[in-house]
């Protein structure tokens, strides 16, 4: 029997069109349960999701990625949203305290692309320093700042290559991995890789006089964690990689540091993205448009996780699995480990670097070009670890 629409249970969803497989996960069949629920899906570019759209469409569900800032400004004219899902790991674009105060359920996709980002970092290191593939009596030392899902996964890959790892994470207990101070990690490593959330000083009073109690406040703030002092303490030969959030590094200090030291730096994220100034871009060893997590597996896992969270909120059983949508994956870490010369076959990071640099115009990468590269990105495949 045709399910009759039931306004009480029907859903209107506003979603970032850059979320993978939206229609396969969010439709009448996958969200109906036994209610006959009908779904109205409104797909919009993430940066175009604004207060006016939400006031006009009054969605019950908001599905986003990192470019949509969810806060009082966005939701002030909407009282219908009851669920916000971010198909991302990072949550610095979401005011979770505000959502909690509005009793709006929030879910992100913690860990969804941990292997993707770790493999991106490995690809960058081994592209710039292929000698690190060789087992040696003096293996390279990798400093990992932030030992959560991505940092600890990267440490696994590094250990499987026989590298030394210096890990620093002030919010986790000391361990075999969390084995160094910040100073030791940045002074004693051949490579330093950043894997922290973007946070600001807790209880800091802003210029406007407000005190920062937000969910992104920390006693160990990461904004400009890598500043002039940190860069001055880092040996000039140390390769620095940022695939966390752009503002973790002070871009002006970084530019001066590279001019002074000639340091090799890899950035997947930029303090002022989506704009990138040529003056910085031209000094980077590798530059990519925030795509470290952009594998088919990573993005599908993100969609799966917020779909599962919505199903739980609706008290229905999930009716869609990413495994039905994934083509066969023959990218095997074991094969790559045995034949490191095949790295470029798996992922040629320099193609992404060249594609970004090709968009330079009038001394900068423009926001529209940065966003288009990400929108049209051919999703990589994760190596099966
Ligand atoms: N470039 C890209 O495409 C992607 C970037 N990311 C970014 O990477 C970040 C890390 O991701 P996950 O490891 O999955 O997050 P996670 O939350 O699992 O781990 C973050 C770790 O950083 C630690 N930390 C916090 N403040 C610190 C500080 N001041 N110094 C050292 N460690 C500190 C925390 O204790 C935690 O263990 C995300 O927050 C996101 O911003 C995530 C996915 C893709
Ligand atoms: O998951 C995160 O955190 C990320 O940084 C994502 O890779 C960001 O991708 P978009 O949400 O900007 O598409």
From TrEMBL:
- Identify the keywords attached in UniProt to this record, alphabetized: Cytoplasm, NAD, Oxidoreductase, Pyridoxine biosynthesis
* Gene Ontology MF annotations: 4-phosphoerythronate dehydrogenase activity; NAD binding; protein dimerization activity
- Give the principal location in a single coarse category: cytoplasm
Q: Which GO terms describe its biological process?
A: pyridoxine biosynthetic process
Domain named D-isomer specific 2-hydroxyacid dehydrogenase NAD-binding is located at 138-202, 221-292
One GO cellular-component annotation of the UniProt record comes to: cytoplasm
Q: Where is the D-isomer specific 2-hydroxyacid dehydrogenase catalytic domain?
A: 60-312
Superkingdom to which the source organism belongs: Bacteria
Q: Where are the transmembrane segments?
A: none
Catalytic residues identified in the record: 245, 273, 290
Tell me which residues bind NAD(+).
169, 268, 293
SUPFAM superfamilies named in the record: Formate/glycerate dehydrogenase catalytic domain-like, NAD(P)-binding Rossmann-fold domains
The EC code for this enzyme is 1.1.1.290
Compartments, record wording: Cytoplasm
* Residues annotated for substrate binding in this entry: 66, 88, 294
Q: Does the keyword NAD apply?
A: yes
Q: Where is the Erythronate-4-phosphate dehydrogenase dimerisation domain?
A: 345-384
Q: Which reaction does it catalyse?
A: 4-phospho-D-erythronate + NAD(+) = (R)-3-hydroxy-2-oxo-4-phosphooxybutanoate + NADH + H(+)
Assigned protein family: Belongs to the D-isomer specific 2-hydroxyacid dehydrogenase family. PdxB subfamily.
Q: What does this protein do?
A: Catalyzes the oxidation of erythronate-4-phosphate to 3-hydroxy-2-oxo-4-phosphonooxybutanoate.
Please give the subunit comment from the record: Homodimer.
- This protein is called Erythronate-4-phosphate dehydrogenase
User: Which gene is transcribed and translated to give this protein?
Assistant: pdxB
């Amino acid at each position: 029997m045709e399910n009759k629409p039931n306004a009480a249970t029907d859903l209107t969803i506003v979603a970032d069109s850059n979320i993978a497989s939206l229609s396969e996960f969010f439709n009448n069949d996958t969200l109906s349960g036994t209610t006959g629920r009908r779904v109205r899906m409104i797909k919009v570019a993430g940066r175009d999701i604004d207060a006016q759209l939400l006031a006009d469409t009054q969605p019950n569900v908001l599905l986003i990625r990192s470019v949509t800032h969810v806060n009082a400004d966005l939701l002030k004219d909407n009282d219908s949203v009851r669920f916000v899902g971010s198909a991302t790991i990072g949550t610095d674009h979401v005011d979770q305290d505000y959502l909690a105060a509005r009793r709006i359920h929030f879910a992100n996709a913690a860990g969804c692309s941990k292997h993707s980002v770790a493999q991106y970092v490995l690809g960058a290191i081994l592209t710039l320093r292929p000698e690190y593939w060789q087992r040696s009596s003096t293996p390279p030392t990798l400093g990992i700042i932030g030992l959560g899902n991505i940092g600890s996964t990267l440490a696994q890959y590094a250990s499987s290559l026989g590298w030394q790892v210096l890990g620093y994470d002030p919010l986790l207990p000391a361990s075999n991995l969390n084995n160094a101070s910040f100073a030791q990690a940045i002074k004693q490593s051949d490579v330093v890789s950043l894997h922290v959330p973007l946070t600001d000083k807790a209880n800091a009073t802003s210029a406007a006089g407000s005190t920062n109690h937000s969910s992104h406040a920390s006693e160990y703030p990461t904004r400009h964690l890598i500043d002039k002092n940190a860069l001055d303490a880092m040996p000039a030969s140390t390769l620095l990689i940022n695939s966390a959030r752009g503002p973790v590094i002070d871009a002006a200090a970084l530019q001066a540091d590279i001019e002074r030291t000639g340091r090799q730096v890899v950035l997947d994220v930029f303090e002022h993205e989506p704009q990138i100034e040529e003056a910085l871009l031209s000094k980077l060893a590798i530059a990519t448009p925030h795509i470290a997590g952009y594998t088919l597996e990573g993005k599908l896992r993100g969609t799966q996780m917020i779909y599962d969270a919505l199903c739980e909120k609706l008290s229905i059983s999930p009716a869609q699995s990413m495994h039905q949508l994934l083509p066969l994956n023959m990218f095997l870490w074991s094969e790559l480990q045995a034949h490191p010369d095949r790295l470029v076959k798996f992922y040629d990071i320099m193609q992404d670097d060249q594609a970004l640099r090709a968009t330079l115009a009038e001394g900068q990468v423009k926001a529209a070009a940065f966003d288009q590269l990400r929108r049209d990105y051919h999703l990589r495949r994760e190596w099966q670890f």
